[in-house]
């Protein structure tokens, strides 16, 4: 960076951090800090909740991935990644059913009541791993606009960004997170519009929206993966699911539906950045937004960095608040060492500070962020039968474990390359991923129903013996 570029980028980072801290409200009690209520105990409003869900799920790494897929496969790649946002309405509807049918106050409460405490603990461990990965994978994207991995600018920007986000998260917890999400949502939409204003005139609109093919070896396999994972992927992300319990059921459901549809549109639109790169022969180099920004000039690159900072900030503050709730509220309750009374805000604050720094360690190790979505989504495929078919059972711990651990095992085998080649569907880049998710869903579903079928057969046998 020259002096002008450095002044612009570092200046915005500093202004962003100060403004977010000054504007974010301060929580005065645990109900506000952990549940997002105001000082009078009123829950989050519908449109604030909608904006929060919309922007907190648009991760910095996600919009980068969407653009990269647009560069690789055209609009097919963009649609494939945007389809993950359709899982938000799915999650909202299932949480609505859980709340109205079981009265559960959280997913942990629901799992404990239907599948036992060990099931809830296994689920808690899965979401903690997810939350841990969200820290470094978002700060690393921001750092990439200030320097390359290995350079001091890269690490300094990522850590400064972390400290600023931590500061206002400590100030207000979930209340601050949702409040700043509204601001970040407006900033995100404005600068995405600015980016499109630069890209659309540089291309033929019909070419921009029609580039790509719906073939298994041209990105369509990933689209099918996303449609399969929409029934499991959202449930291992407390950034999303925690917001399913902060307002009345119908208000929550409306927010989830609107946010999911808006998210789908926004992510697909941003994927056109990658399509632009594809049409104009720009080498994405693993980061299409940055490559396109550099090709269009300083203004475009700055707009891209603002989009990344706002999306990363909204996810990172939500990650901190979800970690605080998971470790300070949910896990102690599962371990039967806490009452229903919420813990002190200080406990949640300590959790945030620890993970703000420990969560960035993988960034210094140079971990790849681009596989996070598909691999983590595969490992939790066993959650789909649990949440889709819970109505078939009142109490069945084995149904959870046979489904959840089978999915986790298949995900691990996929990650280490031990799945047989015969499982692949098609011959595209994501053929094996599609096969594991398709066959894995059937295997996990069978695992869920096996205990229920055996129990029914046993009852029939006993009834026949008594007769």
From TrEMBL:
It is found in: Cell membrane. Pfam families: SSF (PF00474). Keywords: Cell membrane, Ion transport, Membrane, Sodium, Sodium transport, Symport, Transmembrane, Transmembrane helix, Transport. It catalyses: L-proline(in) + Na(+)(in) = L-proline(out) + Na(+)(out). The chain crosses the membrane at residues 6-23, 72-95, 115-132, 152-170, 182-202, 214-235, 256-277, 297-324, 345-363, 369-390, 402-425, 431-454. One of its GO terms (cellular component) is plasma membrane. InterPro entries: Na/Glc_symporter_sf, Na/solute_symporter, Sodium:Solute_Symporter. GO terms for molecular function: symporter activity. Its main location: membrane. This is Na+/proline symporter. It comes from Marinobacter subterrani.
